[in-house]
Structure formats: C-alpha cells, structure tokens
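Input/output pair, single chain:
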Amino acid sequence: ESDTASEISFQFNRHKKTPSIGSHSSDMASVSSVSGSVLSVYSGDFGSVDAQGTVEFALDYDEKNREFQVHVSQCKDLAVVDEKKGRSDPYVKTYLLPDKARMGKRKTSVKKRTVNPIYNEVLRYKIEKMVLLIQKLNLSVWHNDPLGRNSFLGEIEIDLASWDWSNRKLNWYPLKPRSLSAVNGVDHRGVMSLSIKYVPPGSLGKCPKNPPSGEVHIWVKDVKDLLQLRPSGVDSFVKCYVLPDTSKKSYQKTRVIKRDTNPVFNHTIVYDGFHTEDLKDACVELTVWDHEKLTNHFLGGIRLGLGTGLSYGISVDWMDSTQEEVAFWQEMMLAANEWIEGLLPLRSL
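Output:
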C-alpha cells in the first residue's frame, strides 16, 4: 500500500491547561513565519469607494544583488474615502502572485490627508530572476484606517514574464477595480488525495499486538496541480504534525518527488497514543513544500480537525479547519476502523 510506514506517539499531556509545544524544529519555525504573513490580497477591505486615479512606478531587477525592485513614485486623483472630511490616507502595497505566501507583502509609508501622495520609495524582493518571471506583480493602493478598517482604492496587475526589462523609467498606470479572480478567492495551490482512519483503544480485541491506546492512520496518496516556482518543475515533499505537539517526535515527512507538479507519495503515517476524546482537541497538519538546497518553500497545506479555534480549552490559531476539512475529520470520528477517502484543496495556512 505504501512505500514507507512510520509510527509515532501523540506526545503531550492531555490534562495540562497550557499547550505543550516542545522544541520547535527549524522546519516548523519556517511554517510559523509563513503563516504569520499569509493574508488575502484584499484582507481588511471595508471600503466601498470606486477605484480611480493613477499610480506612477518603475520596475527593475538588480542582477548583482538578485533583487527585484519596485520604485513607487506617486499617485494622482485617488478616490476620497472620508467624504465628510474630504480626505484619504493612502499607501501602496505589493504582492508577487500566485505564491504571495512565499514572498510576502511589501508596502510604502502612509501619506495622510491627500489624494495625490508622493512616496519615492523602493519595495524590494530577494528572488531569482527565473522564479520572478513566472510571477505576477499585484500593486494596489489603500486608505489606511486607524482601526484597521482599510479601504481598497485601486490596483494594477502585471505579468512579469512579458515585462520589458529594458524599461526602467517611471510610467503612469490607471488604477483598476479588483480583479474577479482575487475577489472570488481564487488561490489554487493544488489538491491532495488522502485517506485517514481512527483505531479506538481496544477495538481490535485483547491481542498483545493490538494497541493499548488509539491510533490515527494517515495515508498521503498524491497531490495534483502544485505551484511551479521555477521552470524545471517542483521537488516536493509533505510534512506532517499532530498539533499541538510540534516536537521532533510528532514530525514526519515523505520522500522528495523531483520535477513533478503531480507527485505520487503513497506514504502512510501512524500516530498512536490517541484516546477518543483527543480527537476533539488535536489537529493533523499536512503541508507541502518545494525542496531546495538552502531553504524549503511552502506550497500549501491542509489542517484536519474540528476547527473550533480551541485545543484543550486554549485558544489557538491553528485550529482553523475549513468546512471540507472538518467534515472529513468528523467522518473519520464516526466511522472507527474504516478508511475515509478525501480529496482536499491545498490552502495558505
């Protein structure tokens, strides 16, 4: 059934009032840094003003420093957000798409009480040129609200594969309304095929070989349509943790499948030490990564749990399963000793 099978124990005290974190591996630290920066391009948009005006900027790539530079000069005739006071407090924000999680956002300073802000700032991305050329630049203008209720003022999206890199001059571009793909939340990262099974304590009889505590079996089959971050393809692998345990005992990973955006892993992991009540408070996190020599790049993931936001009475940000992920986990809980098959979309975590 699978190329490898791993068995590890569910390691933490179920009766503690604080989550047991254990020692973070360097890989898990990188997951945390990614999840802190993953926001929708349009997160926090509370405004309803129509996009208008123009933005002046230039693009350049510094070959020596391997750095993509966005020279944001100024904007003109932006929409007025606060009509009573006749003001907008605009700033400019950029993402590299489709993998905004990997590179994160950059933004200028906020210019207060003006619809004609002048920035003269450079937003920088450390990125290889060949990777940059399969990205799109999303540049958007926003009104900054003190309470975080920011308003979208307009955007422009540029396909960097077709950009004229000899053009380093500042040019004016009209700001457009939000693109339908982003408004509809399209952020396709691939789809994972997997099966899970829960074996309750003592459910297989009193044979000495049977587990004294319950087990969760996770069979990672394959992934389709992964993000391709470089022309040669993607070298992917899957990491697994059972949260809140992030210790090395909880950490498991598959082998690396090279140059394939549709990798077949066929890898089974078994976690023991589970009691039935733990299923309400635990979360299986499966993340897919692109393997490179110096660092691994996050491609997408899923979290299987009840999505309550709580683990053993403690509020946690990782208990955020989608409706599909929750339904998959609940089906497993209700069908002991049976494999439950699923096809779940990868997402930003």
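The longest helix spans residues 26-37. The radius of gyration is 23 Å.
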